[in-house]
TrEMBL record:
The lineage of its organism: Bacteria, Bacillati, Actinomycetota, Actinomycetes, Streptosporangiales. Residues 7-25 have a biased composition (Basic residues). This is Methyltransferase type 11 domain-containing protein. SUPFAM superfamilies: ParB/Sulfiredoxin, S-adenosyl-L-methionine-dependent methyltransferases. Residues 276-348 form the Methyltransferase type domain. It comes from Actinoallomurus bryophytorum.
Amino acid sequence: MLDEVRRRLHPRRLRNSGKRAKQALRKAGLAPKGPVYGRLADVGRAVPIPPRARVVLSTALLRRPGRISVPIDRMLLGAQGGWTAREFAERTDDLLWPSTRVIDGPHVDLLRLAGSTDEEILASPYGRMARRCVDAGGHYFGARTNSEIVAVARRFLSGDRDDERRPAQSGRSDPILVAPIRGSDHYQVLDGHHRLARAFARGETTARVVTKWMPVTTPLQDLLLRMSWLDGTKELYQPIDGPELAKSWTTVRRCTDRLEKMTKLLAERGVTGSYLDVASCYGWFVAEMGHAGFDAQGLERDPLAVPLGRAAYGLREGQIGTGDAVELLAYSDQTYDVVSCFSLLHHFVLGRGSVGPEALVKLLDRATGKVLFIDTGQENEAWFRTSLAGWNAGTIASFLRQHTTFTEITDLGPDDDAHPPYADNYGRHLFACIRT
Ligand SMILES: C[S@@+](CC[C@H](N)C(=O)[O-])C[C@H]1O[C@@H](n2cnc3c(N)ncnc32)[C@H](O)[C@@H]1O
């Protein structure tokens, strides 16, 4: 059957012309490219312009006139300690800082701590945020020592913060300043975290803010847009919970359906121990199998999976190894009780791997102690109807029987990912290859 699939393959069919056109446009700078865009926005703010000119530029040209009403729960944490949100996230190794809602952030948290001791304030998220500013080489509203940080916090708790009282030159109070986040209905706070936190604590749901014209991007958006597999598309291959992703990012694979089938089978068979996800992307399965009690690791070609997995799922340093699966598996004798490999095999069937699909499953077989979970693109999917004709649940099961040493190959049924915009794709069968 595989020979039949290979005969049908024509190099031109393998090309995805839409994707290539988009790539070309991006390379030519004619299509938006998140990371560059996000950095340009920051660089613009860092240009050394005389202070008076900067104020004129910022107030008269870069800000939209008037104030608008924005729901407070759509405001995300932003600039701190004189750094842009991105700089603060990078300097303090907290990629998700600009992806955190103000209402879940340290300022709102501190308002719940009224009456607390200095030690409690310093140990709170607010105290730690201030300390991070200092440790990164800056200060927090002029504070550098612990007692100065506590004084700043106490001024905020007593409603006596400078930035809330300071009258603007016009005689009106300084506005809360925000920037729209690209591809999102959320805003990044540039100035006014304390005022927003206090408004939220008073039970207000919206705030009047001044907004910049130019949208910003978050580091999370930038990393996702740079992942090679996603090729600049606003897609999440595995679920990531980021408020600024909710509006225009599509979660391609819901993943929970496959995980449920895996954990059920493993529980029935009493399998525990170590787990390796080959081609793990940024590690949703690694994280979930870790929560299920497995010593979980991932292996992924794209190095950006590492910072994404750490930020999005709290994966440990080294939990995702990076490199080519074929090379890494070929040079390792290590085995894992459970191995998974999702949506990789068909790329080898289509001739895009460094070896044939038989060699890939042999390597997976060798790395597996007890159970291998595997799925692959199939002929029922619109985008593979011709190129993978004949590659279906029946022929895949035969292929696995023929090229591996497992004693049992069980078809656990199709995934639940055939929904718009991919209603004509997916429905890939999950196979459990078991050694009894
Ligand atoms: C279609 S995605 C599947 C992601 C994940 N397995 C899932 O199903 O949720 C394919 C992933 O495999 C990775 N990949 C492709 N070829 C690889 C290789 N030779 N070695 C390691 N990873 C590879 C890609 O970077 C991408 O993250």
